[in-house]
Each structure stands twice: as structure tokens, then as C-alpha cells.
Amino acid sequence: MNKHIIGVTGTDGKTSLSHLLAQSLTYLGRSVGIISSEGNGIYPHLKKNMYTTSPAHILFEYFHEFTKKNVDIIVIECSSQGLDQNRLNNIKFHESIVTNITNDHLDYHKTLTRYMMSKAKLLKMTSNKIYLNKACSSTKRIIKMFKTKAQVIYYGLDDRICFKTLNLQENIPTRYNLSLIKLVLKNMLFNESRIYEVFKKLKPIIGRNNYFVTEKNINFYVDYAHTSNSFQSLLEGVKNRHRGSAFNIIVVFGCGGDRDIAKRSLMGRIAEKYSSMIILTDDNPRNENPEKIINDISLGIEDQSKIIIISNRKEAIKKAITIAQKNDVIVLAGKGNEDDIIYDTNVIKHNDLKYLRSLLK
Asked: In the prediction, which pLDDT does 173 show?
């Protein structure tokens, strides 16, 4: 298939980067197909998707549609499981991007090395340019796992994008994403002034760093952050944004069951460092005892007086709102735009964003 295909992988930020890149390219006049956890289709008209990276038969149905409708560029969010299970085999990627690699999905991959090797599969399939995060030691290691004729480009935060100068909404992308997207677009020969004009039009990605403020000046952030790295970045960013005023951060979060147990106490420590109050609640317990998961998180929190435990996520969100005072910040982390909470064979309908909006009405 003669299409320009870009693969995006990494532990954190795959979805945001994929959608911001697709959005930017669309504003630049390109027809863009996207495959991601937040929907598949021709941007921005996407269909809900139960996979991050769809199985091969679904992928090729979309490729057929993309060909029929003369799509110029395809952006694919590439999960480690999708790569490991060979769902993307035989796709020729022109460019690939690795956001970062930290411990995640080790319940599936067992070791960080095997996790990295699954990501390396994308880079082996890339013919033109490979973008690696120079601040991440794992992405520097990954390039040694195979030989490539593609150009390897190390990116970082050297080229900072000024939000105030561009009149950007700060809750849209991170500076990290914009700097990287600018680099990718420039290498695709787009004019820099046009790129900046596009950045002014960007809209938030649903469930990723979404920001609301009420008439009583209580601030809310809803984010998918569920790894220790993304969780810390989220809370650091929130604290920095509100620096200079008196406020408390109330964080509502849990951890998924049947997943990396080691991160739970670490996320507890991070929550304690940045928050005044921590409401521990259910995420996706799956086949684990929800109480055990919450206990694992609380082991990382020294000041137990900061903790409120409310397993029911809706009740936990309500409690945060009743506690909050003027200028306070409530952070709902871990679920983003997900529609369900999974308890063993039970699936409870719940969406943090939708529920919060219903309460704020």
C-alpha cells in the first residue's frame, strides 16, 4: 500500500501524540487515517475501538477504507502486545516514534528487556526516520537491539514551545508533544510558520489532561495517567501550573489488578509528595481483591492521615468535591475516557469525564 505510515509506540503518551499529530496533519491539509485506543478511522471521524492496536484483519479493513478514500497519511498507535503478537507484521512504516520506555505491562512481557524487544519490532519495520527520546535511557538501549538503515533522530525538550506567545490552551498538549510534533512536521517539509498556526487550533484529546474550572474556582483535571512516570508528570504539571496561589491538591486514583504490583506503592509515594489529600479508589481490579490493591498503594504513603479509602469510584469523586475549597485542585487519574470498571467477570459502567460533567452541571 503506497501510503505514508507513521508508527507511535512507548509507555506513556502514545495516544496523545498520535491524535495531536493526526490533528496537526489534518489542519495542514492532509487526509489522515488513524488507528488508536481512542478510535479508528479518518480523522476526526472515528469509530470506538476496544484495542490499542487492532488485530491484523481489522487493520486491513481500515487500510482498505483508507485506500478507497485517498488517505495521504496513516498514524498507528503501536502497543507492545500488538507488536509482540505480530499484528503489525508486513506493514512498511516510513517513520516511527518512541515516546519513552519504563516498566509497564510486565505482567505480560515478564522482563523490561522483553518489553523493549517488542517495541524494537516497530523500529525494524521502519525505513526512513526513527525518533527516540534522548532523555530516556531505555530508548537509547533499544537501538542497539537491531541494525537499521533508517535515520535515527534523538529528540528532547531543547526546542521549547511558548504557550503564552502562541495563545495556546495549556491543557491541550504538553510542551514535550508539541516540540516533537514540530520536529516531525518540519522533517516532512512543512513550513514552520504554518506549523505554529496549526498549533493555535489544536483541541484537547478526550481523557488526556482535560481541565475544567467551576464558578467557585475549583479546578479539575481528568487524565489517563496510570504508570508511575505519567502519574508524576501529571501531578508535577498541575502543581507548576497553579504555583503562586494558595491551593490544595486532592488526588483520586487506584491501580489496575493483574498488572505490575511494584508500581502501586511507588504511586502512593508520588501521590503523597504532591497532594494534600489522597482518595484511594477502584480502577480495574479485574481478578484481584480490590482491598488488597488499595492496601498495596497505601504501603507507599507515610502520612496515613492523608488517605481516604472509598472503593466506589463515583462516591470517591463526590467526596473529593465535598472536601474541595476555593482554588483547590482535584485530579482524577487512571481512567481518562474509559467507559468501564472491571471486577472479575462483572463490568460496571463508569466514565470519569462523563460522571464529573454530570456532577458539575
From this structure: 47
